[in-house]
Amino acid sequence: MPRRLVLLGSDEIALPAFAAARALPDTEVVAVYSQPDRPAGRGQEVRPNPVAAWARAEGLTLLQPEKLEAADAAHLVSLRADLGVVMAYGQLLKEDFLAAPRLGFVNFHGSLLPELRGATPVEGALALSLAETGVSMQQVVRKLDAGPIHAVARTKIQPGEGRAALRARLGVIAGELATAALPAVLAATSVAVSQDEAKVTYARRLTRADAPLDFRQPADILRQRILSVEGWPGSTFDHRAALIKVGAATVEEAAAVTAPGTIVAADRLGVRIACGQGVLVVTQLQRPGGKMLPAGEFLAGYPLAVGEVLASAEMPAFVSDRPFPRAPKA
Questions:
Q1: What span, in angstroms and rounded, lies between the C-alpha atoms of 256 and 253?
Q2: Average pLDDT over residues 282-293
Q3: Are 222 and 280 in contact (CB under 8 A)?
Q4: Could you give the CA distance from residue 18 to residue 53 in angstroms, rounded to a whole number?
Q5: Residue ranges per domain, the chain?
Q6: Which uninterrupted H or E stretch holds 164?
Q7: 25 upstream amide cis, omega within 30 of 0
């Protein structure tokens, strides 16, 4: 008799793990839980998220509750699931829901737990300039990302690797880990190992307040920040009345010769900005209402003068060794 799986996810990063779980021999996906279809894009057209779109395309039973309630737990009991598989779902699972599958739930998390529990482990790893990250497959408990670990896959973070590229790689790694480690969980032979609570760190959800850059910081920290928040909220600086978006940057190791935020050169090679340590060389920029352009093309239509001093803004940390206060979604 096939083992019965339920899958819970909403983000594209989960698709390789879900496809791998579905492809396991002698298994059947009896339901996919995902976030409701929501307005997206400039036209605010209501669209399914990537997991919901995949489930529909594959002809799988798709359930999209706005919030999991007691009735959803009762329905899950009726599905007689053996195991739930979670990745980037977007809701916390309550006790009645966790207890419904025979073997509970496993979650694929994009960090080497106990490091970087929470909503943004990929972004946190990049912001911290970690040399290594990976995917942890953990048993789900009520406490956020705190369950014992069944299996881990590690990977080196590549120089200059940004959020989109790293997320894509971790998705593939999660798929490989699912193929390798889920059979033992389904056979009830996997031995999960408790996390070391002394080594826990937390990565909070990002907000628009994470976009402004602080040129008082070292240039290499700014480069990693730019890589970690690429896409949304992105990285920005104020220039007179305009908010300029930074698409890419490199670092020059140079002794500080002027105040942080000072534009020391601006040409086709980039906009060179003095920082607290070193120089940030911004190579792609975008003006309000415009497109992201290489520095030379940007400067042809929007000059930045050498000697101008760009304002710095505080950059709130999004990794801590203590849980962050719960904040409203941005």
A1: 9
A2: 97
A3: yes
A4: 13
A5: 3-202, 208-301
A6: helix 163-186
A7: no
Task: Quick: pLDDT tens for 13-55.
Answer: 999 999 999 999 999 999 999 999 999 877 889 999 999 999 9
The pairing of beta strand 149-156 with beta strand 132-139? antiparallel
- The answer to whether 30 and 100 are in contact (CB under 8 A) is no
| CA–CA–CA angle 324, 329, 330 (5° rounding) | 110
**Fold matches, 3-202 and 208-301:** no
Q: 13 is written with which tokens?
A: 């990063």
Gap between the Cα atoms of 78 and 165, Å rounded: 39
E strand or H helix at 251: strand 242-252
- 40 residue type, one letter: A
Fold for the domain defined by 3-202: Rossmann fold (3.40.50)
Dist CA 154 CA 228 (whole Å) = 19
> Tokens 């819970």 appear where?
8
- Residue 246 and residue 231 in contact, taking contact as beta carbons nearer than 8 Å: no
Q: Please give the CATH number for the structural domain made up of 208-301.
A: 3.10.25.10
Question: What's the mean pLDDT in 295-309?
Answer: 97
Which band of pLDDT confidence, cut at 50, 70 and 90, is reported for residue 329?
low
Q: What is the 8-class DSSP label of residue 307?
A: T
In which order are the strands placed within the sheet that holds 202-203?
Answer: 117-118, 202-203, 319-320
Radius of gyration for the alpha carbons in the chain, expressed in angstroms and rounded:
22
117-139 mean pLDDT: 97
Span between the terminal Cα atoms of the chain, in Å: 45
**Residue 249 carries which side chain, given as an amino acid letter?**
A
Percent of the chain topping pLDDT 70: 98
Residue 43 has a pLDDT of: 84
CB 6 within 8 A of CB 80: no
- pLDDT at position 330 over 50: no
Cis status of the peptide bond prior to 148, with omega within 30 of 0: no
Euclidean distance between CA atoms 57 and 64, whole angstroms? 15
